[in-house]
Design brief:
It is a single chain. It is built from three helices and nine strands; from the N terminus they run ββββββαβββαα. The chain is mainly beta. The protein has one domain. The chain has an eight-stranded antiparallel barrel with strand order 1-2-3-4-9-8-7-6. It is globular. It comes from Kribbella sandramycini. This is 3'-phosphoesterase.
Length: 171
Amino acid sequence: MSHRPIFVVQLHDARRLHYDIRLEVHGVLKSWAVPRGPSLDPSVKRLAVFTTDHDLEYASYEGVHADSKYGSGAVIVWDAGVYTNLTRDDRQQLVEPATAIERGHFKFQLYGVKLTGAWAFTRTGADWLLVKVRDDDADPERDITSIEPRSMLSGLTIGEMAASARDGQET
């Protein structure tokens, strides 16, 4: 059986609340900060800022960073699972994920707890856009970030995670 690369979406309350979408590529997590989080509506284009690669071990991190190379603030694992690369070239040949990212368009199928279906990151100048592909998992009526605020690991909201650290509780 071949290896299925992982993905994780972490909600991070740093200087500004945002969702970090991370996809495993060549042993690291390629990462985009998405301020408004993913949308299930294919007509919605979400700003995504390409950020530094993260170690694979970071995929399960929840807690509160004081001073970290990854940014301060509370972090929860909002969603996680595996993904399949769907990126094709003009001849319909599969394009390797690192090459797709380098070329500025990466299409993938998520198999998560909250997010399923096809998505695409597309570079537009310095930044990127995240768009839900029209498929059976698209749902313009559901605001997934509002109706699913809790961590899939701890069950905490981002506010509860921050409060637990302030109160000196284990996270």
